[in-house]
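Pilot study result, target chain (237 residues):
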Amino acid sequence: MERQRLLCRIGRRFATATQTLRIGPLEIPFTRVADPNRVLDEVANAEDRREKLGGERHNGDELHLPYWAELWDSAYGLASFLTSRSTEASRDRPPEVLDLGCGMGLTGTVAAATGCRVTFADLEPPALLFARLNSLPYRDRVRTRRLNWRTDTLARRFDLILGADILYERPQWDFLDPFWRNHLAPNGSVLLGEPGRPAGDAFPDWIIGLGWRLTQHEQPVPTRPTPIRLFELQFAQ
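Predicted structure:
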């Protein structure tokens, strides 16, 4: 059974917890890392050992911190927003969706549950295992792809590109902008969840200055007292 096989692979490295998330009208069984802080500590300890043995420490670009192991509020906010509007309205085919930096796959799973065809993309292989596991009920319309948005390209374009909490590092914006341009279908949109960090405050002026149209939304989520802000982008032709 595919679920048991994936759980076995994941369980070799991570303790997990499964809960049912209520998102709009949907009830999503979701398996996550039980203790994200422990995963972060393991990466930090491994880097300390590497430095002691070899005398060399990785810089930020080389050290892959396990941000994917946390279920971010922005993912919950994006998922809730998707259920509040019809992604299939007035279409003669299912929308093609890219969940960029998908983490454990909540946002993309909700998109698949609404009828979209979803590609989960993340740099970290463990994240893709969780995304595959959580999207199993919709396996006929999902795929996974290991991807570095700084260097990789996909030979296709998407009606909707999702990104939950991927704006936290300002240097990444210079890679995200061309990636979106290269992968967005005509009349497509980018939808980003951002929890209110200072970097997010600076994003609207920056992206508008590059020729994108921006619409901002707010999405309440039960996990925090203030709403998630959503940046919806379309490229001004």
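One observation from the pilot: The chain has seven helices and nine strands. A full batch analysis is planned for the follow-on phase.
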